[in-house]
Each structure stands twice: as C-alpha cells, then as structure tokens.
C-alpha cells in the first residue's frame, strides 16, 4: 500500500475524522500535515485581517494538542508554512506519498485553494481524496439534490428531520503507522504579525484550543453541570459560562465533531430523558449545517453585497466613521457598545449580541453589511465562514430570511435580555480588569 498524507485543515481532531481513518486503512504509512498559509493572515479588501489574534492563538493551541495526541501513537504533526499548492507537493516528494486525504471544502477561497492543490499534486502522480467531515447530516444523505435544497430553514429542517438519518461517529484510530516525524515547529503569534491577546477577567470563559479541551467542555456542559437541561431557557443569556454551550470555537476549528456532540446528547437523553432543551441543541447544530449547505449551493453569491437576492440594499454604503465607532463600541447605544467591547476584548459575543450588532450596523447605521462580516471574520474566536457570512446576509436582508426588514430594536432587546443592566454595567466600564 502507498504512503499517504493526511492534510488537516479545520478538522483538528482524531475522533470522527473520516479522512484520517480512510488514510490509515489504505496506506502503509501516514504523514499528518498542517499548512499555515500566510494568505490567511493578510488584510482583506474590507480593511480587516482574515485571521486575528484570538483565533490564531486558538489555532496554535489546537495544533499543539493535535501533535501531542499524535505523538501518543508514535506519529506527529508536520507543520509547514507557505502556499498549500507548493508545500504539500514538497512534503509528498519528501516522503514519496502517492495519496492525500483531506476534508472537503465548500466556501469560495477554500475551494479554489483545494483545486490548486489537486492540480499541483496531480502533476507528480499524487491523488487527492476528500471527505465531508464538518456537518451533522452527511451531504450524501440529504433528501434533496444540492440545487433543490430549500432556501427557507424551516422547510429544510422539517424535511431533513423526517427523511434523513445521522451517521455514527468514526472512533479514534487504534494505530497510526508513521515514519519518524520530526518535532513540530510552530510560529509565534508575533511571527504571524499578531499581538498576544490580553486576558480579561470579564470573559465568559477561557477558550483554549484543541480536541482535548473541546471534549472536556462537551463533557462538562452536558454531564458534569447538566447545563444542557435548561439550554432553551438560558441560551439568550449574556453573562457567564453556562448560559450556552460555547462549543462553537471547537466546532469551527474542527476540534469537536457535530456528530460527536449529537451522540453525546443522545446518551444524556437515554440517561436523564429528552426535553425541549436537548432537542434545541440539536436544532442549533442543524442551523450550522444549513448555512454550510447554503454556501455549497450559492457559493460566491453569499459574499456579494446583494447576497442571494437580485438587488443589493440601496441604503447600505461604506461609512468608515460609522463603522469605526461600531467596531470600538462608541456608537452611543449602550447595548450595542457593550457587545462590541466584549467582542473586541475577548473575541467572543453571545448569539443575542451578534444579531443585535449586525442589525444595528445594517439598519441603523446603514453600513454595507460585508464590512461587519469581515470584522467578525478577523475578531471572532469561533469564526466559521459559512455560518458567519450566511448569518450576516440573513440579517442584512439579502440571505435566507423569508421575512423582510428584520430590524432589531436594541433598547427593547436590552430591556428583554439585560433588564438589570448586569451585562452593560460589566462591559461599559472603561478599564480592562485583568
């Protein structure tokens, strides 16, 4: 059997990783590789970096954890820096690899990168095989063709819940046959052109990257604290660790598999009983699937100002001054400002906050929604391209929202979700509490 490369991307885990399992099954030797692409740390046309300090730190921690786990199998992670279409062929030549196994991409830039890698490897007789590893429901199990995926979530949800099943997870491998892998060399944040994030004691939690930490959080939220029992009632909270699962950062980096989350919820239901909250957690995972399938269906349209609609919002323009006030939490609307300061200082914001600040930028400040999406791309520790751009298009009125003019009233939202000013008092203090 040939030597194969496993090209890790946003699937930084050993559990439920089909690409890794298939590589082991069909190879005499496996070389785990991660490529740090300098393009991921450059500035976009919107003036924000593609990857900021919070997610970069989480990424480096995740790579370190993956390497540590691979070492337990007498393997290891080869980390290279450069364009994947140049670095992966170089690694393939070095180890005489004939196959590359990797996660399948759906977003525009990642898909183009994947195509460049396939073409470069083909020239030296190395084949690439990709697998869908990011969703709860496998793409092949959908009860409709790609072009027929409903553009309304409720229609999608009802049909998929009725007609599709969720596959079992792939267990962690028993062995990983690898040659001697040199010690991993990771760049520093400074080498990537980023600052080290300053800790803030007000943060909802300390997000640490890696599968080990992701599985630890999964167990803590579902079984140790049993916070999932009241998830539907608390999910719109804004202060504290357990008002929501906080799985998103590990899901986005692929340190957690959505199917692993699902099957752990099912174990909980078998032991303690199902309720609206356990269902609602799965419901939220389905939203995540939906945006990924929408990205697969509509592709680059979800990055355009008009989104999947035929016309862009006429009232949304680029207003640099308004955008900067929004970014810095200086709009004068205290609920919006509190949320934006939390994001800037921690890399995280609640789902309730995200909907409000997005609505405010689009419909109150009338700023082109793509600038907000680009800022989130840089700053969010749990940035996921499909969910981020899909959600922003949704709020801006150019995405999958069947309603028109979905405009949040931030004062009413503050009265409903922060009635005692607890959240605003926490984040509107000027000093950063270390």
Automatic annotation (TrEMBL):
<protein>
    <recommendedName>
        <fullName>Cryptochrome DASH</fullName>
    </recommendedName>
</protein>
<keyword id="KW-0157">Chromophore</keyword>
<dbReference type="InterPro" id="IPR005101">
    <property type="entry name" value="Cryptochr/Photolyase_FAD-bd"/>
</dbReference>
<comment type="similarity">
    <text>Belongs to the DNA photolyase class-1 family.</text>
</comment>
<keyword id="KW-0274">FAD</keyword>
<comment type="function">
    <text>May have a photoreceptor function.</text>
</comment>
<feature type="compositionally biased region" description="Basic and acidic residues">
    <location>
        <begin position="401"/>
        <end position="421"/>
    </location>
</feature>
<dbReference type="InterPro" id="IPR036134">
    <property type="entry name" value="Crypto/Photolyase_FAD-like_sf"/>
</dbReference>
<dbReference type="InterPro" id="IPR036155">
    <property type="entry name" value="Crypto/Photolyase_N_sf"/>
</dbReference>
<keyword id="KW-0285">Flavoprotein</keyword>
<dbReference type="InterPro" id="IPR002081">
    <property type="entry name" value="Cryptochrome/DNA_photolyase_1"/>
</dbReference>
<dbReference type="Pfam" id="PF03441">
    <property type="entry name" value="FAD_binding_7"/>
</dbReference>
<dbReference type="InterPro" id="IPR014133">
    <property type="entry name" value="Cry_DASH"/>
</dbReference>
<feature type="domain" description="Photolyase/cryptochrome alpha/beta">
    <location>
        <begin position="2"/>
        <end position="136"/>
    </location>
</feature>
<dbReference type="Pfam" id="PF00875">
    <property type="entry name" value="DNA_photolyase"/>
</dbReference>
<feature type="region of interest" description="Disordered">
    <location>
        <begin position="400"/>
        <end position="421"/>
    </location>
</feature>
<dbReference type="InterPro" id="IPR014729">
    <property type="entry name" value="Rossmann-like_a/b/a_fold"/>
</dbReference>
<dbReference type="InterPro" id="IPR006050">
    <property type="entry name" value="DNA_photolyase_N"/>
</dbReference>
